[in-house]
Amino acid sequence: MDARFTAEQEEIRRTVRELLLKRCGPEEVRAAVRTEAGHDGALWAALSDQLGLPGLALPEPYGGIGCSMTELALVGEEVGRSLAPSPLLSTSVLVAPVVLALGSERQRAELLPLLASGRLTGALVVAGGALSTALALTGDNRGTWSGGGRAGGVQARRDGDGWRLYGEAGQVLDGHSAGLLVVAAHAGGYARSRTLLFAVRVGRGKGGDGVGGDAGVVRVRQTSVDETRPVARLQLRDVPGELLGNDDEADVPGALARIGDAAAAVLAAEAVGAADRVLERTVAHVMQREQFGRPIGSFQAVKHRLAEVYVRVRAARSAAYYAAWAASASSGAGGRGDEGGGERVGGLALAQALEALRVAAGEGIQLHGGIGFTWEHEAQLYFKRAAGDELLFGPVHRLRRWAADVAGVFAGEGRGHEERHRDRRGRSSSDGDGRDREGRERGGRERDGQGVGERGPGGRELDGRGVREEVRG
Question: Could you tell me if 453 and 461 are in contact, meaning their C-beta atoms sit under 8 angstroms apart?
Fold first, then answer.
């Protein structure tokens, strides 16, 4: 692993930061979240048309730039610094990789160029509260998290050669404004119960070239802790959906787990960018604010608190960069692979970054004094981002617990532990059987009075005959 960024990667970081500094300050963020879409359409057009960010990590044949998750994570870090509300996360980090991984060639050719250009935005529709499980970040995603029927969620049923979707899902990121819904639905009866993904085109994308109407789709924007990540409740009433892929035998849980690990790396980078921005603003404030005739930043208690935040942010940044590199190496190899230390690198990086952001935002509010507690100050926006991301993708303790379970850190029973040690157990099984036989024979001799090392009176070693002689004597 080469930890240095290339000149091209540094240029991407610099360009995005300059654009967001000019067009996405705290007042612009507040104005954008109050719009119907929940983001600034002009800013999204600039990110799409000028910088090509929606297609940054998509292959060139589908209209993308062909960069890796590392570049997307660098962009995420800059977006996190400004808390820029945009459909970049839902479109480029969640939906586009799903279409690329599971879609047929026709579906890729039709949808990915629109997503890469920003003319079409997407939303991953998962039963309320199950997004982190669906992405295999906080639990096994091979269960029934998609719901269906009385369990809630969305149910898929056959309708001739197609499919019909019925049900509802809440807390759908950008679900109120997306032109493409990728819906996770439960299909099959008891014998073939499984989760499938369907594409549903609704409304109109940017530029007015969306296809299809909203018949049967009811979308209501919900109140969220973090207004910069707008969410919605969706109801699907017998809506036609197009199955992603050529058949219904695709490994949906496996694909979502790979996508979830990469998405966690980008989310971690976003959290690191936000935490770093809070730290910068707080340091600047304590160097200017004076008490007792001196800046409060000169007091040792304040120094220690900010030093702890600094260490947390630096450690979280290293973890986020490593997770992005691991995701890039894994996808570059054409599969999940074992690069980057295993399959839970993204989740662990996200846990560390969310924790760093929560601590940084809390200290920022405290050290700004009375002004930090007001709605007018931007400190509360970063604290809400930390809380909102934990609700959507965490919480932190579940991210770490699932990573430990998979790796077998404590119980030695995780899937990763099982795979790593299967061969070792196979090689040692014959030796173990031999030792077991020897132990059983030795135990039998000891019970018969013929054990090695037995001693009689005077310290004399005895066999079975010697024991009988001593008894007679």
Answer: yes
